[in-house]
Design brief:
The complex is a heterodimer of chains A (386) and B (227). Chain A is α+β, with helices and mostly antiparallel strands and 386 residues long. Chain A is built from eight helices and 21 strands. Chain A has two domains: 8-230, Rossmann fold (3-Layer(aba) Sandwich); 242-385, RNA polymerase II/Efflux pump adaptor protein, barrel-sandwich hybrid domain (OB fold (Dihydrolipoamide Acetyltransferase, E2P), Beta Barrel). In chain A, 20% of the residues lie in helices and 35% in strands. With 227 residues, chain B is an all-alpha fold. Helix content of chain B is 78%, strand content 0%. Chain B has eleven helices and no strands. Chain B has helices at residues 2-35, 41-53, 56-67, 72-79, 89-115, 118-125, 130-141, 143-158, 162-167, 178-187, 191-222. Classes of the chains: A alpha+beta (386), B mainly alpha (227). The A-B interface holds A 52-54, 77-80, 83-85, 87, 91, 93-95, 104-105, 108-110, 137-140, 153-154, 157 and B 118-119, 121-130, 132, 136-137, 140-141, 143, 223-227.
Chain lengths: 386, 227
Amino acid sequence: MTIHSKGVISACFTLRHENFLLDVALSLPAKGVTILYGQSGSGKTTLLRCLAGLAYAKTGSLSVDGHRWQGDGVFLPTHERPIGYVFQEASLLEHLTVAGNLRYAQFRAGSENSSNRSLSNQELIELLGIETLMQRKPHQLSGGEKQRVAIARALFSQPRLLLMDEPLASLDTQRKREILPYLEKLRAELEIPIIYVTHSIDELSRLADWVVVLDQGRAVANGSLADVLTALDSPMQQGDAGVVLESTIVSREEQWNLMTVGFAGGELLLADNFQPAGTKLRVRIDARDVSLTLSRHKDTSILNALPATVVDVSAGHSQGTVLVKLRLGPKSTAAADEERQMNSQSGPDRDNGELLLSRITLRSAEHLGLAAGSEVWAQIKSVAVL
Amino acid sequence: MDENLAAIWLTLRLAATVTLVLLLVGTPIAWWLARTRAWFKGAIAAIVALPLVLPPTVLGFYLLLTMGPDGPIGALTQALGIGTLPFTFWGLVVASCFYSLPFVVQPLQNAFEAIGERPFEVAATLRAGPWDRFFTVALPLARPGFITAAILGFAHTVGEFGVVLMIGGNIPGVTRVVSVQLYDHVEALDYAQAHWLSGGLLFFSFVVLFSLYTFNRRASTSFGPGG
């Protein structure tokens, strides 16, 4: 059943616990950030504990990047799995200082894999901003500081897989804002796969490369971030439907305090964040912030209007609305649009444009006669820079 | 007066030996009781707690029988060439260990249980195996429990009377501990000596309990609320 191959994390678990049943069979990429997303009680923490060997699923198999951890009579106990684990609540060893906690991990870390991390321990301490905390005891730290130390400690053990169980859930909004940038930096710097449990759409949007949606112990969606966000039958559409675009700062218009960011199929004008051109940037566009027109409106205050083609239309979750899936990119006939630099993007690239979702009323959809293949302009009212 | 000092010295020697033995023996028992889900856990816990409710003379009676020349332990010690244990210092040590066992095991068990599962899971994710986890997580985190257990075990052994009388009798310098000596003084109507010893024991007990409670308060604050 499981594929025993490199580059893949294959996990099958059936675990009954009182009246809860976890029953999943997943194949995940052994790189980047995989988000296990779902409401509380959906089984995401249980799945993570099965991956760590902290929970034991009698019927289960697990192989990580070609190494078998469970199945075929094998069950590696937790301390023999090369993992790092960040618990939901602070979990520092209370009898040790911060430095002592880090040493505890470092001392037991296998040295054979030290090459699989691009950051040295010292760089990690600086990246997480804990260099001034080293001599403190855990009870002298704030919640956010404790979690940063816990993250550093997990990485000090030279893991080949980093598991994080809602590391921000026990923190208030202020502390979340304090830690998220560190997580984004780690995401960019680490070469090991991260499996990250959350029920926050914000954390998902910022960190995910791959998404597994869990509901009542079952995986109801499993795919790349874009695929899961834009599948019209995806469980994600029950909440705030929207897409996340991976973009790059192209140029800035200093007189307007604006900058242009580019991605496959278009460009957006955003409030300047004063980062240099070339910086990568994730932006989230909610479906309810996208309206559609059949022709380009020039007499509008809306800054961003992108040409797009309708891929699919489906009934929205709330009555009287529809969700429209769009492929961004210039229409072949409008390739001469003078204001946008389309360069070479008019031809074959058209199929590779990013997907966008728009939630409009059923009445408007009928009125505009929208169907797969319709060419429209997507007016974007608001963009969240993540 | 020399007899009193001999009794005090013997008592301290006995209590120190018993405390040491009980910390070594009681730790694995307490660890097992704190962690096991075996169906017979209740039975073992009850046996360990028996000396709390049993009259010391009952315990002493059975120990006298088993350690005596016709008892199983007596047969074993004779076969090993040690002779029989009753009416010797080591006989007192063995009997006192049974007698004070719950006073050492229960604080340790409570301390181990209070640690919870999480620190052990944390240590396991940091590659610490079971023995490693016991020595680097369980023992340090249960430190207040060890101090309580040592003090209670020591103090309780100092105060025993019934078991000593049954197993040890009343041999000066060998088995005549403070409580027995005190009994002798009262029997002989030597109240001056009895006052001296009683007052000493009273003072000792107070100091022990006072330092125990002071330590426990300090320990709980130094680990911090919710720590």
